[in-house]
Design brief:
The structure is a homotrimer.
Chain A lengths: L1 E9 H5 L7 H7 L2 H8 L4 H19 L10 E6 L2 E6 L7 H4 L4 E8 L3 E9 L3 H7 L1
Antiparallel strand pairs in A: 1-5, 2-3, 4-5
């Protein structure tokens, strides 16, 4: 079983939300590591927009199987390619999360728009058994 | 065998085509269910654009295998996640359509752009047999 | 093993780079076939932008496995659907490239933006053996 997610975000939405004046919003949506990463750039809004689009695209790709909030989907920058980190302590039951999905996300942005795409592949234990 | 499709559409294209004055165009491209869904919003153009992008992305993902017209690819909203409904009565021969593909589509839009992505997986009967 | 890549490009970036005055740039980034294809249109910038986005999206989808430069990733137009041609003579070692990945790319553009998406599937020889 697999699923996909796409998200497009206007950079302007984040440009209009200064971090210093909207810290509470940022803390509710982003993880400390994401915030630190985005603020390390001269134009954080583009990176907040891309990170947000990444989170949303992953959410769309997994939410039929995993009940998780946006701030528990972390987009981690590993050199160039972004990685997805699901902080799943209390999301869904074991029947949902015992074999975590393989998730890839890709991000891109211009000065005006950020686009993200995610693909999640859930290993079906039933089928895996019938193949081996 | 699998294939993908992406489509980006300017919302303005649909904003410029008022439904009341262009009903024929809409009926040629969209299904009654799609039209009803999009018109249920205050800003139908964004939803027509997203639906159109969805149809186009699915078309691109399947047209190497299935010969189908755009108005036969229906994007159905099932709570949040869109579903794809292929109305295939007379499309392609049985050799093409006897095992319908698994298709996922994801949509996203801003007030200016709609983006859609589709992934189609065609089960290869030959290979399926060799695995089981 | 599989991976994805998305890329969004402003058409304006290419509109501002006239081919005649920036031939060296175009030759460094695009293949002769790509340049010929894009210049065959009245508005080459849109096609250069879509081709560039396609190359970037493929690069993102394969670069964890294949060490390749952008001008060696060729987007070939085959009637409607674009095909990917990796010119891999001297990229990576045999351990990386002995089973070339299956790659699909899809392109879309408006007059302002080009979006591309790529999906690459690397055949894992180990797993392939265990299934057959």
């Amino acid at each position: 079983m697999w699923d996909i997610g796409v998200d497009v975000v206007e950079v302007q939405r984040f440009r209009a939300l200064d971090y210093g004046e909207n810290t509470e919003f940022y803390n509710r949506v982003f993880t400390p590591r994401e915030i630190e990463y985005c603020l390390s750039f001269k134009n954080p809004a583009q990176h907040f927009a891309a990170t947000y689009a990444g989170k949303e695209s992953v959410y769309k790709a997994i939410n039929s199987r995993i009940d998780i909030e946006l701030h528990r989907i972390e987009i981690v920058r590993d050199r160039n390619a972004p990685k997805v980190n699901l902080m799943m302590e209390d999301c869904g039951g074991p029947e949902k999360t015992d074999s975590p999905p393989q998730i890839k996300v890709s991000l891109s942005h211009t000065s005006s728009y950020a686009v993200a795409f995610a693909l999640a592949v859930f290993e079906d234990p039933e089928q895996a058994r019938s193949i081996k």
